[in-house]
Design goal:
The protein is mostly helical. Helices cover 80% and strands 0% of the residues. It is built from 12 helices and no strands. α1 packs antiparallel against α2 and α3 packs across α4. It is globular and about 60 Å long. The two termini are 29 Å apart. The mean pLDDT is 80.
Amino acid sequence: MLKLILQGMAVGIANIIPGVSGGTMMVAMGLYDKLIHCITHLKSEFKKSLKLLLPIFAGAGIAIVVLSRLFEYLLQYYPIPTNFAFCGLIAGSLPFIVKKVKGHSVTIGKLIPFLIFFALVIVMALLGEGDSASADVSLSFLNVVKLFGAGIVAAATMVVPGVSGSMMLMLLGYYDVILATINDCIDGLVALDMPMLMGAVGVLVPFGIGVVAGIFVIAKIIETIFKKAEIYAYYAIIGLIVASPVAILIQTDWSSASVPTLLISAGTLSTIFENVPK
């Protein structure tokens, strides 16, 4: 049980850092196939599946709650170096996925999913919210639907090896605001501040429902896609990964840019890229 909780914490850490793939972390720990099986066979193997899923989800939740304040602080006060660090993590994860298609010839058919998903990420960045702190999460039907949709997208990408769910949240404009809301929820709970707590719950509940729905619905789709068109799926993932650093830099707030900041950012980028396990 404790081992599973610790593994879940590792998955949670991976999912909260833009550029780090929770799916890749699960593959590295030998959990990926087991988790996908438990999610897609929850109804038929309910007790067996819960024994694996509950400690993993609990550990992931603990990690997300603990680290959310740290990343909110970094993005608020050091946005450029932090985003360059995320870019380094994303670029560093690319060789892991490229190995999956090594030995397979490049064809037009395989390039099509690459180009489609590359373009999709860039368009999302250009049309997105920009600074995610400005994303509107005030209580309204439309915003509840958008939060639910953001949760589904984040969950879908969390379970894909090589793709970061938190990176997709950043592109959608909800990464910062979800972190801030998690922290508000904790602060409201500790201080027994009911207005703050209820405001945070009003954001996290539709988002959380979207995450759960996304994990269970998308997991089956992903399982089927990888069985029938694995190489094409990996080319689509490569398109997402290659486009992601460009998209993050498009959305970065450059108002605090300076020569020292850019030098630090370049150093952060190269250091993290070189130390990501290939």
